Structure formats: C-alpha cells, structure tokens
From TrEMBL, chain A:
Residues 58-368 form the WDR5-like beta-propeller domain. The lineage of its organism: Eukaryota, Fungi, Dikarya, Ascomycota, Pezizomycotina. This is Mitochondrial division protein 1. Residues 1-41, 377-406 are annotated as: Disordered. Signal peptide: none annotated. Belongs to the WD repeat MDV1/CAF4 family. It holds the Pfam family Beta-prop_WDR5. GO terms for cellular component: transferase complex.
TrEMBL record, chain B:
WD repeats lie at residues 63-104. It comes from the Eukaryota. One of its GO terms (cellular component) is Set1C/COMPASS complex. It holds the Pfam family WD40. This is WD40 repeat-like protein. It is found in: Nucleus. Residues 438-479 are annotated as: Disordered. InterPro entries: RBBP5/Swd1 (IPR037850), WD40/YVTN_repeat-like_dom_sf (IPR015943), WD40_repeat_CS (IPR019775), WD40_repeat_dom_sf (IPR036322), WD40_rpt (IPR001680). Its main location: nucleus. Keywords: Nucleus, Repeat, WD repeat. SUPFAM superfamilies: WD40 repeat-like.
Amino acid sequence: MSGSRQLSASQSPRRAISRSPSRLSFQHSPSPLPASHEPFAAANDETPVQLDYKPQFTLRGHKKAVSDVKISPDGARIASCSADGTIKIWNAQTGQHEHTFEGHLAGVSVIAWSPDSRWIASGADDKVIRLWDVTMGKPHPYPFLGHSNYISSLAFSPKGNILASGSHDEAVFLWDVRAARRIRSLPAHSDPVGGVDFTHDGTLIVSCSSDGLIRIWDTSTGQCLRTIIHEDHAPVMSVKFSPNGKYVLAWTLDSSIRLWNYVEHPGRCVKTYQGHTNKKFGITGTFGTYSRYEAMYQTENDKYTEKPSALMVSGSEDGSLWIWDVGNKKILQTIENAHDGVVFAADAHHKARQVVSGGADGLVKVWKHNIQTADRRQVFPKDDLDDEHQARMQDPTDDGSRMELDDAVVVKREDLQ
Amino acid sequence: MNLSLVEPEYLAKDLPEALQDCLKSGFSTCIRFNHRGDFLASGRGDGNVIIFDCDTNGIARKLSGHFAHVQSLCWSADDRYLLTASQDWSVVLWDLSTGERMRRVRFEAPIFLAELHPTNHLLFVCAQFDEQPMLVDVQEPEAVKRVLPTIPKRSEDEIANATEKQAAQDAKQNTTATIFSPTGDFIFSCTNKGWFNIIDTATCQTLSSTKITSSMITLMRLTANGKSMVINSGDRIIRTFELPDMTAPDFNFDNFQLEVRQKYQDVINKLSWHWVCWNPSGEHILASTMMHHNIYCWAEHLEGSLVKILEAPDEITSFDFHPYKPRVAAIGQDDGQIYLWGVPAPQSWAALAPDFVEVEENVEHAEREDEFDIQPAEELQRRRLDLEDEEIDVLTMDPVKDSQFQPGAFVMPVSMDVISDVEDEVVAIGAGQFRRKTPGQDWLTVETEPALSGDESKKASNGTRSAGNGGTKRKQRTD
C-alpha cells in the first residue's frame, strides 16, 4: 500500500457523514426552477446553484487503492496511479485502457502530466521519480534519483523544463527534466512534504508539510518568499495555486480546505471550505470552472455572456466527492458513495467538463456534467463544446436519452498486466 | 508573479554583482540571450551550437550543422528561429520548434556577423571577410542575395575633387559589421576605415555616411529601445551615439551627421576593449578588456563615470547582458567556458515565519488588551469564518509584461533526448594544458573530421589553448 498516503492494509471503517443540518437541507433541496426568465437571475448569489455531474465511466484495473488521478492538460487522457505500483493511462473520451506502466518497486503515490501532455512523471514509495512517454507508451531511460524517502508530490513547471518534487525526506527538489539532474534542493520543511505546485508563469513554487507550514519559493533563486501557518498547525497535506496564481488552496487534516492570500504579509486565510471528512489521509483536489447558467433554466433568447465561475473539487474520507463554489463557499454538488472507501484524488478538466476521482477501492471514476437536458442547451457557447455535443445540440430528435446510454457505458477491462 | 514578493531593493539593482555560475559545453566562441531571456545560445569552436536553458542551466538543444568556428548568433523576435554564422562560409537558420535546419546559405568567404531583420525572420544581413556585405532573402529555399555598398556616400564636391588615392582607398574599404535599425527600415554598417553608413533596406542605397574614427570599427550594439548605439573600434575608444528617429517624415539624411555623445577609454593603461554591451535600460555600458580579466561598467546617464569593475577568472572575449535581469553571461578566452554573473538574492528573514518582522533596533513589546485571552475554540472558528465574506477572484490573470512567460507565445518543446556531453569536457592537467576527460570513440572522429578552417576547431577540441576569438582574429586579418 502506498505509504505516503498513510493507507493501512485494513480499511478503516467508513466515517459517518457528519454535516451541518443547513448544508444537508441545502444539498437535498430539489432542483430549483426560478420563475423569472431574466437572463441574470442565475448570477444572484442567493439562488442556490447546483451542478449535476453524473457517472460516465468506471475504470477498473488497479489491484490496490488508487492514490492519484489526473486528466492530461489537453483533456485527451486520464492517468491514474495506484498502491499496486502501476500507472495506467486511459482514453478520456472512450474510457479505453491504453497503457500500463510498471517499473516502480513500491506503491506509486503521485503523478503529474507534462504541459504538452506527452510525458507523465510518477513518484513512488521506492524513492524514485520516473518519467513515462505516454504517446509512445515507453518509459524514460533515466530515473530521477536523489530523494531518501517516499515521494509525496510532483509538479511540472509550465514550460515543462523543471519538475518539482516533495518527499517524506522533508525536502523539495527541483529537477532539470531534460537531463534527469537535480538543480536545486529547497530546505523546505521539518516534516514530510505533502504537496508542491507551480504558478502559471513558473516563477513561484508552493510547498506544504505535515509541520503545518505552507511556503512560497522563488523558482529562479530558491529563496523562501513567504511562510503561511494556520493557528491550529494542522498538517497540510496538499496545496495548489489558484489558476491566476494569486491564492493558494491548502488541504489540512482538520477536515478543512483553506484558500490563502499569500501576497499579503502575513498571509491571510480568505476562505474555508468544509463539509468533507479529512483527518488522516493526504487527499487532493483541484480548481475548475463552471458557468452559473449551467445549472439554470434559460429562455431561448438568452446569450452566454457571464464569465465562468471557479469551482473546487475534492475527495473525502467517507467515500464522497465534493464540489464547492470558490467565491461563496457554497456546495455545488456532493456525490455520495462515489467510492467504497477514501476518495484520495480528484481532478477536473473544464474543457471536457469532466471530473475524475480515484479511491481506496482501486477504481477510477469519470463524472461528466449533465448538459443534455433540453432547457440547458443554451447555456454553453458552441465553441466550448466538443463536436459530439454540438451534434447533439443540433439534433432536434435528441431528447436526452443518450445520457442513459452514457450511464450504461461501463468499461470493465481487466488488467492485462 | 514573484515580483510582488521580492524585496524592492533586490529588484532595483541593474548591474550584476557576483560570479554565480559557470556553463561548460565545448569551447564557446559567441553567446546570445534570446529576447525573453530564458535561453542562452552558445556557438562553439567546433561548429556546434548549444542552447542552454537559463532556468535549469542545462542544455536544451544541440544544433549540429556548422563545421567551423561559429561567429555570430541572432534570435528572431519571437525566439522561434536562430540564425548562426560561421567561418565555414555559411549561414544557417534554425527552426527551434523542431531543432532542424530551415535554411542554409553558402557564401564565398567566412562570415563575420549575420543579423536577422527585427520583424521578418526570413531576411538577414551579413558582413563577410574580404567580400561585400549582403542582404539575403531566404523566403524561398533558394536564397536571394543583394550586395550592399561599402563605399561611403560623398557629397558632389567631394566626388568632383576626388583624387585617385582616395578612390583607391575607398575601394579597399571592407564592411566589418552590419545590423538593422530597430524598425528594420535601415541597415547600419561600419567599415575597417572607421566609416559608419546608413543603408536603405528597400533600395540598398547608402543614405548617409559619417567618418567616426580612422581605425577599424569592430562592433556596433544598439540599446533595447533602439535610441542609442555603442561602437567599439581599434583605436581603443568606445563611443556612444544617440540615434534620431529616422522613420520620421521630416528626417533628412543629407544633413544628418552622427555625433558622439560619450567616449570611454582607459587613458593611463591604454586598454583595448574586446567587447561592449548595453545593459537593458541603456543606462550602463559594459566592456571587457583585452589582456585583463575585467569587465568595466560605466554609467552612461552619469556622464560616463566608472561605476563597477567585474572581476573574471579569465580574459573575457565576448559577453551578453540578459534582456531584463541584472545578469551577464561571458566567455572566457582560455577554455571557452561561459561565466554567469548575477545578483545574489538576500534571504528575507521575515519570509520564514508569518509573525517575523525585520526591525532596525529592539522594540519594546506592548501587550494588547486581549492578547492572552483564552477564547473557546468554536467561538474562534465561527468568528474566523464570519470574516471570510470578501470577494475573491481566482481566475482572472494579471496582464503579463513582455519579458515574462506568456501563455500562447512560442515555447521551445522540451526535448527529452538526454544529450551526452561527456565528449566536450576537458580537464586542466597543467598550466595552459588540457586533455579530454574521457577519450573514446569520438576522439577519433574529431581528429579525422574534414574541416575547412579546421585549425580553430581542432585546437579547441584538442583542448590546447585556442589562438584567439572573433574579435582579435578580425583585427589581424583586416589591419
């Protein structure tokens, strides 16, 4: 089992779902139909917005818990890694299994896509980072050696030339990807490093650790530029920059996800997202976008004008998958029983409107936003949809019954070793 | 993105302070940063061109195509194409998206310098040894070469009174450097007799000529904004000039005379200058000295006062200033290594903990009224959550500056073919003596490689001290 996710072989009993009554009622409230036909009714914060991600595929093959799952930057593939020491590549459109990469001698804890979607980096409990050529299905000949303990996190720089890795040896290493050579070691933390991430321009790196610190680093000089600590010192297990790089989102073991404004000194927590359960394992998630219109019924004349809103998706230890609105902290959707056991990882790709999740049950699940309902057709600009959906939008006989078809597509491909 | 977090004093520095790093790959002969400053191209004595990634100091690409001493390098405006000129009598245009040769143009003589048009990457000028300079259009695979004039433009009177001696002298003139004006409408060229010519790119006619010195001009460099020019010449004086806006409709070339703004020279030691360069803001001039291991920095805006001397471990034959950072890359003469100067980043202690503040002197702590009050945890948590009602935007990107990494701009693909660079490594075994680190199979191939002007590349690859560099060589030949 993947040590860095602290997963014991015997499953811990599922945690009881404990959420505040207000959130419960909110969550179970029927899909509201606003009576008004005003185009901007949806923009009103008071209107409860809900998203509708439905199961699209279940990807079977991993023999042990899935520790990380990521959609490629171009949206074409899904990569998952598991405590069984393998990395699997799946086609995001069809759910077909494409490759299985074997080579790690212990459970793989983390994977990262290169920005050109061609390479995958994997970090495992055998202290080694490996690269895999996804298009050719081949491993890179040189492993990245240097960490003295489990690898817990990886991130590519936006140009793809630097790989940052965090490890249980308490250091963050920066690697020259081309030469498989370590270029810098950041004396980062005094406890296992949980997560690392780059800003979109590659100038800053964030790292977090079980010692409760989040640190911001200058990529070019290796200097620590900011340190953020929450008063409770809860271990920070995962961290992500916001898409514009102005905030960092941190997962802590007090069942909270906090959004920090790190530019200010001292750093300030601007939002806290709660509801999920996270007390023991390193759980990750990511940012995504949605349009408020997606969830609303619109008249024929409405145009898609609103800027997309930010959402945030995360797994939970009770087997559910959570989606929050980043701006107002409201829960957009909760998928109960997404997995049997802890949901370790979740990733979103807004272009494809997909969310993927990986859990302790060894499954990878793909969730697709339900946009087939006739009344919701107007909500997307056409160029934002893939061809298949454009075709559906134009097909007058399409009554949305294909959604059930999608539901039925369950790929049961056994592991072909 | 990092600028808002970095100490302002650190950002305010505009000159490098300390030697920070050293890049090794063969014997480097010329170097150039790209416009975005994330890559450094290095031409080598053996004809290979190495592109270093400035983020990792690793090798991003190796371009093999020349088989003699690379003389000059020029990046296209979008950093996608690289033009290299070599002593093997050819100029190559590389497409860095693939790393392939896009065009190869052969000439009748070794090339001093080739420079791309500022906006059109398929047009370049080149100055050749003992031949006329040329404007070359490589739109089609078959290059179209146009000869540029070298003879200075004379007024009617001068032509009428011209003696035979003068005509003979004019005929002996040779253009030593050609560069484009910032807009690309004009070509600036200079000759071994100290003349500076402005040539119209469209008609290839000389519009104006100025005699600057009586000795050879070896180098011309413009500032990033194109408003100033620096010229290095054989008389050991560096001259700076202010360039007018030549594209203005009322600009008259007939009345135009280039006037020296500032002269830099070492009056006592009479040092000669290998190479000169502007810093990105155009406020400083840097020059490396012959026979001394120094780079001098003068402040152009402070009437040319000497502000800094960078000490190098070696004689610096050529160097380049980073396009927006206080960073200099320079080539050592002895072993062709590339030295990198920069500003060491200070550690801000306040960054290490959120409650750290740097103070000048001790401050008496005044306790707040409620500082040590014990609050119930739930109460605290509720209060904290209540404070979180601020509007935030995690999606909107800040507009990026030109110099920074921009999404959508050309990005050189990361090539994972790890370049074996062992063959290039030389180790010192004594004073001025070097040997290969691992003599192997490639040892033979280099020895037997047919090379046109092979002595240079052989010397470099054998590791013995190379005879010279672009600058000195040029002088020996033309003087």
